[in-house]
Every structure is written in C-alpha cells, then in structure tokens.
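Teaching assistant here, posting this on the class forum so everyone can see the example we discussed in section. The complex has two components, and the goal was to see what a joint structure prediction looks like when all of them are supplied at once.
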Amino acid sequence: MSLLDSLVRTARRRSPWLFHLNAGSCNGCDIELVACLTPRYDVEQLGIRLEASPRHADIIVVSGPVTRTTLEALQTVYAQVPDPKVVVALGSCPASCNMFAGSPTVVGPLDRIIPVDVYVPGCPPRPDAIVAGIADAVAILCGDAPRPEPTYVPVVTDACATGGLS
Amino acid sequence: MTVVRALLSLLVFPGALFALPAGWFMMWLQRKINARAQGRIGPPFFQPFFDFVKLLAKEPLVRPRLQGFLMTALPLAAVASTLGAIALLPVFPRAGGFSGDLVLLVSLIEIGPLCAVLGGFVSRSLYGGIGASREAVLTLAYNLPFLTALVALVASAGSFSLAGVALAAAWPVRVLALIALVACIPVKLHLNPFSAASAEQEIYAGSTTEYDGPRLALWELAHALEWVALTGLVASLAFPVADAAWPVRVVVFVAVSVALVVALSFAAASTARLKLAQTARWFLLWGSGIALSALVVAFVRL
C-alpha cells in the first residue's frame, strides 16, 4: 500500500462527518445521537462532526421506520452523499419497524430502501452504543472492515441516478 | 531580486509554506478553545489537516459542465487571492512593498467573500442562496468600518503602502483603527456573534451547502488562509518591530496572530449569534463609530 493510500485511509478514519436523517422517528434516537456531542461523550475527540448538509457527509445516520412521507427525502439524501459513504441504522425502528410494523403509513424497514451497513439496535440505544456503531461504520469507511452484503437489492430511483441533482 | 523576494513571500513566508500549517493550526485552536470553553476535550491536533485530505479524497459529483467549472473556479480564486493577500503582509516593513499595496491587499482580501457570495448563488441551492445573500449584506455592512479604519491609517501615515502605514501611523489613530479592524474579523471568518452568514444548522451550511468533496476542501482551505491573512494584517500593523532582527519579527508576528486567534475564539465561544439586521446595525453604528473617530483623530493631528 502506497503512502498516499495510507494517508487517505488515516484521514477517513480520523474525520468521519455525519448526516442525521429523521425518517419518521419518535425523536428518542435523535436526542441520544445529539447526546453524543455533549461534554459527557464528546465525539469531536474522534473527529466526528454532525454536518448540516448531506453533501459534506461520509456517514448517513437514519432513525425511524421510514414513513411514506420521508421515503423520497431518504432516497434523495442517500444519493446526495458523495462516495465513499456508509449507512448506519439508528435504533430498532429502521431495523425492524419496531412497534410501527404493519402500519399502512410505514414503508420500512430501512434495508428495503437503501443498503444498510451498520445496525445500532435499541429503543433508544445508549450513546455508548451509538459511538460504538459509528466506530464500526468508520472501519467500513476506511477499508479496515469489509462492507456487509446487502440483505435486499435496492431499487435505483431517479434521485439515485442523478446524484440527487434536481 | 524583487522577483525572488516576491516568490519567497508568496511561497515560503508568510505565503504557502507557512500559511497552510498556520491556517490549519488556527482552525484547530479555535475548535479546541470552543470545546474547552464548553467543558469538552475537543478535536485532535491534526484534525483540520485530516478533514482536508479526506474531503480531497471523496469522489467529486458529476455536475452540469458550466456549474461544475464555476463551483471549482470560485473556491480556487478565493484560495489564490487570499494567498496573494498573505504574501503582501508587511512582516518585514523595511523590505519590499510598493506604494499602493494596501489597496491591492484590501481588494485581494475582499475577493474571498465575493467568491463565497457568487459560489452560493451558482450552487443553485436554496440555502446556498440565503447564505450568499446574507454574506453580501454583511460584506456591505462591515466594509464601511473596515475601509474607514484603513483610510484613517493611510491619512495618519501619509502613505498608501502597507510598510509606510505599519511604520508611520500615529498611535492614537492606530489603536482606534485596529479595534475597528479586529471587530470586522469575526464576520469574515463566520464566528459568533457575527456568524449570521454561515449560521450552521439554521440555514444548513450557508453558501457552501451544495459543495461536496474536493470543492468543499478548497473552501476549507480558503477559510484557513483567511484566518492567517486577517490576523496577520492586524498583527503586522499592531507591532511593526522595524529595527529588530528577522527571527524577532517572525516570532512577534506569529505570537500576536495566535493571541488574536485565542481572543477571537473566546469571544466566539462566549457569545450567541446576532440576527442579520442586528449585525448590520452593529457595524453601521458602533463599528463605523470607532472607525470614524480614528479618521477624525487622524485629520485633527494633521
């Protein structure tokens, strides 16, 4: 491995920027994710930053069971994040739809819409678990760990094909 | 010899070789002080460098040809002009410089914000447009005290060259003018309390909302260089140690710049963001008041 490659890998390991998308979550997981930024957990030590724009992000953190109203936004945001990117499913809702399973307004779970790389289960998960999940995502991002096989082949939408450009 | 000297100041000191690490160091220092003031540990030392490398290594998005060209050219122009402004700084007041380089420095410093305004609109993002229009309003507001303070310095020194101003401006004028200049720095660097132009989380990322990967890395680079240019301008005007040996001048220049970064970071960490109208009003009233008093003092003494 050349010096440049190892520099890029180190940079990816040391500087993961997150974009958080609420796909119909009850706000429990969202609060726990923001708790990671507080003095008690302080993920900025690991170079992690919560970015406001999906164009700046490396890791997409999705909470919620994916409702019909957020489906299009989810697909657009996934396409807007430049490669390489990793998807983290935050909480039980994106993994299994949790207590919202079977609802006519829910189109999840998340891995039927976009490929999911890391699951952080819990309702809501503790901030420690979220930090551990992001660490797993970082390992996939910089190539230290293999990317898991997607359990569902997602449908390519118009948003995905155009890179989220309107 | 002057060509060699110009190249040295552009590429070595205070230019690229010094300004790049210094800019990253200042960005780290600001984030670290912000974190410590909030009771956190803060980012590691090499964080801005790793952020830059990571953004460069992201795959650029394929955009329509003209838009892609403009979205690359505008941050590049901001980087180049800010680097040029740094090269003009009178760290060594008796060496180099020419009559009128102050006008050139002001225009080079202003090209960065101008590119940010254009870049926000070019990106065709709603939030980029809002950030760009805010940036434009604030540029008009803070340039009144910024330019008035520089005119006061020029009037007091009787010279349009940076070296002449650094050596000859009268001290009462200089103190008032420098206060006005320092007050303008947080707007240009998008720091609290004057951070309405970028207003992260409120209008997403302002004019850089739509920029991805390498293009965003160029904006980050321009931002790092702006730190060096603006703190360096104040440092070289505040302490022109003309008769000292060159290591002393370099040390004084760097020390005053870093002290200014620390002061600005604490001010940013301990204040909240003012609204756009409040920021503009502050500069048109208080900022201009200080700068105008500097101008009055300069003319009365003449």
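For the discussion questions: Chain B has one domain: 2-301. Chain B is about 75% helix and 0% strand. Think about how each of these relates to the inputs above.
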